[in-house]
């Protein structure tokens, strides 16, 4: 059975302990988490950092233990030009300390060959910390489609590296549910769910993806077919950041509850 989760981007700058409790209240026991706050102060919470605040790390571990929530995806590991992934060593140790089961990366170095080399190193570093690794593709990134992502993963051939498939990125990069259904399910390690218009209205794709996503079922993406094409076991996590809704509500709880209910309706057999 698919397990519904909530992604860090969905809650913007909500502090991590509050995020964990909110996820538990919504019976979503899988979350993604980074080591620092979303860079845009949407809700204007106090800044926080899990890198610099040992007390906060202790509180997060206690909250995870108390609620049964798991960090199913660690974020903040973009592969960039001129920076080797070895620089992530300490952050990966912290993710492992927090109990993250998996860490994700995206290819932002415009040199695909360099991305591939770095991805192999990243997968090995994650494995050394007892965590799985995923690579996410999206329009505008170096690894920009399912086809490219599959080629990269097959070229690296590391048993610890699999794909992260985001519904909005997948369909906007030209993917189809039939194409996804043909992929070896073992290669899909994590799934992110949101809705959107079929054709972009905003010329800035990354702004739309970061601030203007829609509740599942409120857009035009074929999400039921998408969900049928991804593995039956594993996490399907809501990545539904919506800045207009956040400004209207002042807190993510109500929006998340609506999105959780909508996602569960789609996921019901």
TrEMBL record:
<keyword id="KW-0413">Isomerase</keyword>
<dbReference type="GO" id="GO:0016853">
    <property type="term" value="F:isomerase activity"/>
</dbReference>
<dbReference type="InterPro" id="IPR036237">
    <property type="entry name" value="Xyl_isomerase-like_sf"/>
</dbReference>
<dbReference type="InterPro" id="IPR013022">
    <property type="entry name" value="Xyl_isomerase-like_TIM-brl"/>
</dbReference>
<protein>
    <submittedName>
        <fullName>Sugar phosphate isomerase/epimerase</fullName>
    </submittedName>
</protein>
<dbReference type="InterPro" id="IPR050312">
    <property type="entry name" value="IolE/XylAMocC-like"/>
</dbReference>
<dbReference type="Pfam" id="PF01261">
    <property type="entry name" value="AP_endonuc_2"/>
</dbReference>
<feature type="domain" description="Xylose isomerase-like TIM barrel">
    <location>
        <begin position="53"/>
        <end position="251"/>
    </location>
</feature>
